[in-house]
Design goal:
Blueprint: H1 14-19, H2 23-33, E1 35-38, H3 44-51, E2 60-65, E3 72-73, E4 75-79, H4 85-108, H5 119-128, E5 137-141, E6 146-150, E7 161-166, E8 174-176, E9 179-184, E10 191-195, E11 202-206, E12 209-214, E13 217-227, E14 230-233, E15 235-241
Antiparallel strand pairs: 1-11, 2-4, 3-6, 4-5, 5-15, 6-13, 7-11, 7-15, 8-14, 9-10, 9-13, 12-13
Length: 246
């Protein structure tokens, strides 16, 4: 795939920009609500370069039209390996910050699986389980498009956190199209949450479930995510999922 490297020349490396994040606050937000926002993770030049990849023919392993599968309206493409450098760097650099949170969550939820310190070791585990296909993707929505609530589960191996980065500016490039999450606690009504994303912001959020502190200890709550109906313009998103697919 041809990647517009000029748009990211002389920029901070993914590792450097993630090192500047207040990870204690991210961890606290994830524990409290199942999501956290990293503001201005990518520059506008980087978001424009990534969004421009969508209509290239090379570099993707599959193209999904949501309406054909009952997923909503809109479309998305999964990248093939090798990933574009910026996406590869973000995936590798973010993982070590998220793995300790993921391990703590699994311990609190009574799950046996623990995650290694580096992403390559985790991918090896995925590949040994038959999950060989890359999962980072680009999504594109136009007027009247939406994404039904869902979870990104692709096999037995699941990393419990993922990242979505908004590549267009709300109110300027599109209207509507809010990133929505729902949380279902036992014996309670569903809670809806709208994440306040701007262009270049990244949402870190629970893939499937998260621990919740109760009066008798921790328990699991289920989460889903989706996108509300777009009214005008175009909305594109980069999704960074850390487990690979069957």
């Amino acid at each position: 795939m041809t990647f517009n490297t000029a748009a990211i020349t002389h920029r901070r490396t993914a590792e450097a920009r993630l090192n500047g994040v207040d990870w204690a606050k991210v961890h606290a937000d994830l524990d409290a609500q199942g999501w956290a926002i990293l503001t201005k993770l990518l520059t506008h030049a980087e978001t424009n370069a990534l969004g421009g990849l969508y209509h290239q023919k090379e570099g993707f392993r599959s193209h999904v039209i949501m309406a054909r599968h009952g997923f909503g309206r809109g479309e998305y493409k999964y990248f093939s390996y090798p990933l574009p450098p910026l996406i590869q760097d973000l995936r590798v650099a973010a993982y070590p910050y998220l793995a300790p949170i993921a391990n703590q969550w699994h311990a609190r939820m009574g799950k046996v699986a623990r995650f290694p310190d580096d992403h390559a070791a985790f991918l090896q585990r995925c590949h040994q389980a038959g999950q060989m296909r890359p999962t980072p993707l680009l999504l594109e929505y136009g007027p009247e498009d939406y994404n039904c609530l869902h979870r990104d589960l692709y096999g037995e191996q699941v990393f419990p956190l993922q990242i979505a980065i908004l590549l267009d500016q709300p109110g300027t490039d599109f209207t509507g199209g809010e990133f929505v999450m729902t949380e279902q606690r036992p014996r309670m009504q569903t809670r809806a949450m709208v994440l306040p994303l701007q262009k270049g912001d990244a949402a870190i959020f629970a893939v499937n479930s998260r621990p919740m502190k109760g009066v008798r200890g921790d328990y699991q709550v289920k989460l889903n995510h989706g996108v509300s109906k777009l009214y005008s313009g175009k909305r594109r998103t980069l999704g960074v999922i850390f487990h690979d697919a069957v």
